[in-house]
Amino acid sequence: MNESQIDGAIITFFSTSSAVGKTLIGINMASELAREGYSVCLADFDLQFGDVKNYLQLNTDYSITTLCDTMKTNSSHPLTPLLATYTYNNISFQVIPAPQKLEEAYTLEPDSIIDVIKKLRSQYDYIIIDTTSMFSVLNLALLDISTIVTFLGIVDFIPTIKNMKIGNDTLNTLNYDANKIRLVLNRSDAKTRIDLQDVVRILGDNFYHILPNDFESARQSIATGIPLVLSDQKSDLTRALQSLVSKYTNKGYMSTYKDKSSSWISKFFG
Predict the structure, then answer these.
(1) Residue 186 φ then ψ, to 5°
(2) Helix (H, G, I), strand (E, B) or coil at 94
């Protein structure tokens, strides 16, 4: 492969709350892009508790630790042979698993991880990155080099919305290009008393894309290790995930929410 021919897009999934679906959505985005014929690398940078390897039921001893150690020893050494490969029905993409041991999460240097991504981006059309839910040194560095940041949230409890607002406000202070941050809502129709339009007004931004709640489909996907977009089922969630990918590949359109009504949750945030 001629490395000079590729300058891959980096799509990072970020949130300020845990358990919002970053890993599941990141896996499905990587799978759908691979299904459409793009070369894809999925990186799990939840260094302490990453689940990509488990979700995809991969059997490998390689991890981001392996790649960083290799780069330090010999920066010209090819990294692709050290990546895990997920394959289903002749569709495949590469994976960088999180460290196998918890203590490795504390010894990995953010600069080393960034060097790995910079080298790999010349070999893949898309690099999809799963992160932890915090503004860490590593995450800030990943946000900086990302082509698109998918800021993912859910509307379930007041603390989650508060964290989403803090995160969105913080991202807006980083002076990124206006099109870089994509606010995506997951599990939108979960049963809560919180009105979606109120959340939009509180955040001060419309959602770029909205994904429906489908716990059973997600549970089955995780149990089988088969991403939703590659399975036989064609649920609303599957179609919404494919629609999100089509937007990122310039094959779709943006829908927004503009309701300005008032309710009890607005009073909470003032």
Answers:
(1) -105, 155
(2) strand
Note whether residue 57 is domain-resident: yes
Nearby residues of 108 by Cβ (< 8 Å), 6 or more positions away:
47, 64, 65, 68, 99
Do the domain assignments include residue 269? Answer: no
Residue 10 pairs in a beta bridge with 127
Contact present, 33 and 245 (Cβ < 8 Å): yes
Tally of domains within the chain: 1
- The percentage of residues in the chain with a pLDDT greater than 90, rounded to a whole number, is 68
Q: Which two tokens stand for residue 243?
A: 């629609």
pTM of the model: 0.87
Structural domain for 91, as ranges: 8-261
Strands 91-96 and 40-44: parallel
| Nearby residues of 148 by Cβ (< 8 Å), 6 or more positions away | 9, 10, 11, 12, 180, 182, 248
E strands along 39-122, which residues? Answer: 40-44, 84-88, 91-96
First-to-last C-alpha distance (Å) of the chain? 55
pLDDT of 101 reads 93
Question: Cα 14–20–25 angle (5° rounding)?
Answer: 70
pLDDT digits (tens, 9 = 90+) for 6-24: 789 999 999 998 888 999 9
Instruction: Report residue 103: phi and psi, to 5°.
Output: -65, -25
Residue 27 CA, distance from chain mean position: 8
Q: Residue 239 has what DSSP assignment? A: H
- Indicate the average pLDDT of the chain: 87
In the numeric block, the tokens 């692709």 are attached to 80
Q: What is the CATH number of the domain that holds 16?
A: 3.40.50.300
Q: What is the pLDDT of residue 5?
A: 55
Looking at the DSSP assignment, which residues form a beta bridge with residue 93? Answer: 86
